[in-house]
Design brief:
The protein has 209 residues and is α/β, with parallel strands linked by helices. The chain is built from ten helices and six strands, in the order ααβαβααβααβαβαβα. The protein has one domain: Rossmann fold.
C-alpha cells in the first residue's frame, strides 16, 4: 500500500498517462487532463475534455496580471488554491449566497447562480470564470458575452447534470469569442472546475506552498 501523498499522486499520474496517449496533447494540456481525470477518478473523461487552443495561455496571462476568479458556487470557491492565486495578486469570488443576489433572483425569476453572474457584470472582464455546478450560470455568462460585450479571459465551464448541462457546454464550445475549458455531455462538477483551475495555478507555480 502506498501511503505517502506525493507517491500516491505520482502513481495516479502513471495510471492515467496511457489513457492520454494518442491525444496529441501539449505538456500543459496533459497536466490539466490528468488533474481532471484524477479528481474524477474516471479515465472516461479523457475523450470528452475540450480545451480551446488559446485557453491555457489566456488563463496564465490573466493570473499573472493579477486577475480574479469568479465562481458559481461556494464548493468551487472553496476548492481553488487561493494562496497560490494570491501570490499573483488575484482573489476568488462567489456571490451566490449574497442577499443582493437573492433579491435579484426573486425579483427577476431566475436562479441565484444566474443572478450572481449578472451581478458580477463588468468585473468579469479579464478574469477567469469557473462554473462547476449550475448550467444556468454558464448560460448567463454566455449571454453577457453575447449581448453585453462582457469579456472574461477564459471560461472554465463544466456544470454537471441532466438538465441544461450538456446544452450549456455545447454552447460554450460553439462560441468563438472566449477561450474555454469544458467537458462534453452530462459529466462535470465542482471538483472538475477546481481541478482545472488548480492545474493552471500549478503550472505557473509548483512550489506547493
Amino acid at each position: 500500500m502506498i501511503t505517502k501523498p506525493m507517491a500516491i499522486e505520482s502513481r495516479s499520474m502513471e495510471i492515467i498517462a496511457p489513457h492520454l496517449a494518442g491525444l496529441n496533447l501539449s505538456a500543459d494540456e496533459t497536466k490539466i487532463y490528468s488533474r481532471i481525470i484524477h479528481a474524477a477518478g474516471d479515465v472516461d473523461y479523457a475523450p470528452i475534455i475540450q480545451i480551446h487552443p488559446s485557453a491555457i495561455g489566456a488563463a496564465k496571462a490573466a493570473i499573472l496580471a493579477g486577475g480574479n476568479i469568479f465562481t458559481d458556487v461556494e464548493m468551487v470557491r472553496t476548492g481553488i488554491n487561493k494562496r497560490a492565486l494570491a501570490k499573483f495578486g488575484g482573489e476568488v469570488f462567489c456571490k451566490v449566497a449574497d442577499a443582493e443576489v437573492r433579491e435579484i433572483a426573486q425579483r427577476e425569476g431566475i436562479t441565484r447562480s444566474m443572478a450572481a453572474m449578472r451581478s458580477f457584470g463588468e468585473n468579469l472582464n479579464g478574469g477567469i470564470v469557473a462554473i462547476g455546478n449550475a448550467p444556468t450560470a454558464l448560460f448567463e455568462v454566455l449571454r453577457l458575452v453575447r449581448e453585453e460585450n462582457i469579456s472574461p479571459a477564459v471560461i472554465i465551464g463544466v456544470p454537471v447534470g441532466f438538465v441544461g448541462a450538456a446544452d450549456s457546454k455545447a454552447e460554450l464550445a460553439a462560441q468563438e469569442k472566449i477561450p474555454y475549458v469544458t467537458v462534453s455531455g452530462t459529466k462535470g462538477g465542482s471538483s472538475i472546475a477546481v481541478a482545472a483551475v488548480n492545474a493552471i495555478l500549478y503550472i505557473l507555480d509548483n512550489s506547493r506552498d
